[in-house]
Design brief:
Blueprint lengths: L3 H5 L7 H29 L5 H8 L4 H18 L4 H24 L8 H19 L11
Helix pairs in contact: 2-4, 2-6, 4-5, 5-6
Keywords: Membrane, Transmembrane, Transmembrane helix
Main location: membrane
Membrane topology: Multi-pass membrane protein
Length: about 140
């Protein structure tokens, strides 16, 4: 509950919907960072299927390490405080990476068992959008003027 003095001072109200939004933001963001970092780990260590999948999609093998590095850096960018512009670029990069993976799997008819490649990449895209849309004002980049 906010007091009259807090409202008069212009302090933000803490509402139940604000708390739910904050919890949803952190749940999406931490899940997204975990998925990106675990995906990067699999790519760095050439886990089963990683090389095969990149080969099926027609990407060169050196591309795996490049993608993995950007996943780690992007995850760090969305988790640390500040750097609002960097966060925007990280979200954009994650969206381009995962939507590109979705389209690549779709075009090459590499759906995985039960459409897993499509389901996972689409789900991560949705998580990127949700984390971006739910982020608090102090973590978003708003152009002045």
């Amino acid at each position: 509950m906010t007091t009259l003095t807090e409202r008069a001072a212009g302090l933000p109200r803490t509402s139940a919907s604000g708390r739910v939004r904050t919890i949803a933001y952190w749940a999406c963001t931490v899940s997204l960072a975990f998925m990106m970092i675990s995906g990067a780990y699999g790519e760095y260590t050439h886990q089963y299927g990683t090389l095969e999948t990149h080969t099926i999609l027609g990407y060169p093998t050196y591309f795996i390490s490049l993608i993995a590095t950007w996943k780690v850096l992007g995850s760090a960018a969305i988790l640390v405080p500040g750097f609002a512009r960097l966060k925007e670029w990280a979200y954009a990069g994650m969206f381009f990476n995962m939507s590109g993976a979705f389209i690549s799997h779709l075009v090459e008819h590499d759906y995985g068992s039960a459409g897993m490649h499509l389901t996972v990449t689409a789900g991560i895209c949705a998580l990127v959008v949700a984390s971006w849309a739910l982020r608090p004002a102090d973590r978003s980049f708003v152009r002045a003027g």
